[in-house]
Design brief:
The complex is a heterodimer of chains A (114) and B (115). Chain A is mostly beta strands and 114 residues long. Chain A is 0% helix and 53% strand. At the A-B interface, strand 4, strand 5, strand 9 and strand 10 of A face strand 4, strand 5, strand 9 and strand 10 of B.
Chain lengths: 114, 115
Amino acid sequence: GQQLNQSPQSMFIQEGEDVSMNCTSSSIFNTWLWYKQDPGEGPVLLIALYKAGELTSNGRLTAQFGITRKDSFLNISASIPSDVGIYFCAGSNAGGTSYGKLTFGQGTILTVHP
Amino acid sequence: DTAVSQTPKYLVTQMGNDKSIKCEQNLGHDTMYWYKQDSKKFLKIMFSYNNKELIINETVPNRFSPKSPDKAHLNLHINSLELGDSAVYFCASSQRGGGAGNEQFFGPGTRLTVL
């Protein structure tokens, strides 16, 4: 089956620093999504990407859909303490037997020191 | 207003018991999902329903039986619970299965602990 490798596994940064994380896949996806999960909560969608090469921003967050459709990255600029959490990439393919199921990366645990 | 809700939030039970988790979404979505998150935080799809019809079953043991009485509800019944079933179970919904504009929204999760 499809595998997603997400890196880094964890990051410890100072408030105000920029953060970058990425996901690579063994096969192509036609949708890439980035989620954030806070402790005791469900994943919350941050950014959705639907076209190869697409670059999308949401406030301090920027994500890109890789041109090969096998990778994506997420950048967070000027981190703040509330950015703490686990960030997940997820890929999906519309239609067919996949019917939109999400394949998740292993997650990046982000810790921000004030 | 809660978009995707699950009950209960926590479930502690003995091995061998049967238990159910309920999920409801008020987003008017057609597709609902169950995901399992293990102790290492890895999220994996279990089932998906579209308009009450099962469309994804990811080689989950048949002790797990999802049921969708209508497109706003998706329940998960688990028979003969085992220690390895301990995990957090997430329900999610989307307008339809995949593609632009069909992002999945997740519930708050049900933490199942089997003793």
